[in-house]
Amino acid sequence: MPFQIGQSDFLLHGKPFKIMSGAVHYFRIVPEYWYRTLFNLKAMGCNTVETYVPWNLHQPQPDRFYFDKRADLVKFLQTAQDLGLYVILRPSPYICAEWEFGGLPAWLLNIPNIRLRQSCPIFLEQVSHYFAGLLPLVAPYQITRGGHILMMQIENEYGSFCNDKDYLRAIAVLMRQNGIDVPLFTSDGAWQDALDAGTLIEDNILPTGNFGSRSAENLAELQRYSARHGKSFPLMCMEFWDGWFNRWLEPMISRDPQELATCVEALLKRASINFYMFQGGTNFGFMNGCSVRGDTDLPQVTSYDYDAPMREWGEPSEKYFLLQQIITNYPDASPIRPPILPSLTAYPDVPLANEVSLFNCLDQVADRQDFPYPQTMEQLGMPYGYLLYRATPSSASGEIRLRIYQGRDRIQIFNQQQKVATQYQHEIGSEVMLKTPNDHFQLDLLVENQGRVNYGGKLQAPTQRKGITGGVMLDLHFHTQWQHYPLDFERLDRLDFSGKADPNTPSFYQFWLEIDGEPQDTFIDTQNLGKGVIVVNGENLGRYWSVGPTCYLYLPAPLLKSGRNQIIVFETEGVRPSYLRFSDRPIYQPLTTEKILN
């Protein structure tokens, strides 16, 4: 075997090898920048790149696989190999990664009696189908076949979810059946209970730890766990957290560079390392994950900068150069080189060109589906973004009480196209009074899926089904006969801006950015916008929200072109942008205690 897991060292071609890796998520970086990112990783001294593989990206529907653009995993592996980087691949069904639903496809929620991430035959059947489409593509890149993949992960932090060893073994068997013959590993929090639940050490599968501090203590726990089972493995931190992710309505999180360097220096003396993250990238589209605090879901921001050594936009931070100085002292380090730097610009402001209310273009961006009772996003086959429910009830009393039961995540209520209320998860179900002086009235409910949770027990919860799962009660009865409009942001080229505009309603705003010469990276300034998404030349950059802490969307140059570029803002908060502003730096908003509490 060209790569082996010894008792105290990893062995590469029979010689001890210290893995110095950095996490790069190909799906969070435009493919045109994969080479630059991987070059810079190697230039920092790392010899390996680690990446997750998100199931929901590669199998967006049960009958459709996708391996193009940011999903072109084979191209990413080939780029790493061309640069001489080894690869740690984590194609486990669940990845966490602060990614929508932890990488699980939302369509799994439509399958009756399924239990996620357990030895449930229904779930394993779906994993088997996924692996049959995915693993044969990556198998040729294993080091056992002349490629650079050193090892692959069975499951991710499983000890923080369940202790179903039959499930872990079933995943390992499926990987072997699909041509995977490199060593396998698990990664868990480095405490005994998590390791007991989440590893397959009894099957000689390498256990690794995930942590970002107290290296001596955590490595000692890994050693103690192996010794308890009469085993000895090389020590590795599979996720050394060099920063952290951010959530809406919370202050930015950062880590002191010198403190990080001190911790890394201590860890490398005893173990191999994977920096999580090396470069975080961007949660394009609707792929941001969601945290949980108690019973409250906390959606994460579009930027996955992570305060990493290489920033979201590809610029090295102070951490990069400090780590470079440490890594260069190890014989397995790659040669230190200057990094490739990004080119950033602030384009001139562009004025608003056209606008149209969502209520006057629904048929252009959504296929209407009619059902007696409200259907969920998953049932309608459009599990991300926004879903508008419409009904035309009648009331003879001049006003009527409205209650929405079991809705997720954020619901805007419109009576005769006038906004009445916005309800969040803990407010949904509260009573709203609707004025109904004209007997029949148009009721519109715009529901936003703000992101499914990516970690913990709520993966199994009914709350991960998005939209209205209970019903809508008017007076004391559930109302029937609903029109459903799941918004499709890949159909914005069909928008007819000759329709009526109404900035008090959710609306589409069109801008044109003219570029002379080669496009450059930029940031769209969202400080003066409310809430929504921005689509550039058909590419959904992701969500923005005025609550902060981030007040920008990163716009990579490859999504632009020389000449005319169309930018469409979908704004839901009644904010009419008369112009669009750009910046050559990211924009952050300090959060006051009052704003955080509200």
UniProtKB/TrEMBL annotation:
GO molecular function, one term: beta-galactosidase activity
Active site, renumbered: 157 (proton donor), 239 (nucleophile)
UniProt keyword annotations, A-Z: Glycosidase, Hydrolase
PANTHER family: BETA-GALACTOSIDASE RELATED
Pfam families given in the database record: BetaGal_ABD_1 (PF21317), BetaGal_gal-bd (PF21467), Glyco_hydro_35 (PF01301)
Residues of the Beta-galactosidase 1-like first all-beta domain: 374-488
SUPFAM superfamilies noted in UniProt: (Trans)glycosidases, Galactose-binding domain-like
Domain Beta-galactosidase galactose-binding intervals: 506-565
Source organism superkingdom: Bacteria
Protein name as catalogued: Beta-galactosidase
Domain Glycoside hydrolase 35 catalytic residues, every copy: 10-329
Gene Ontology biological process terms, A to Z: carbohydrate metabolic process
Hydrolase found in the keyword field: yes
Family: Belongs to the glycosyl hydrolase 35 family.
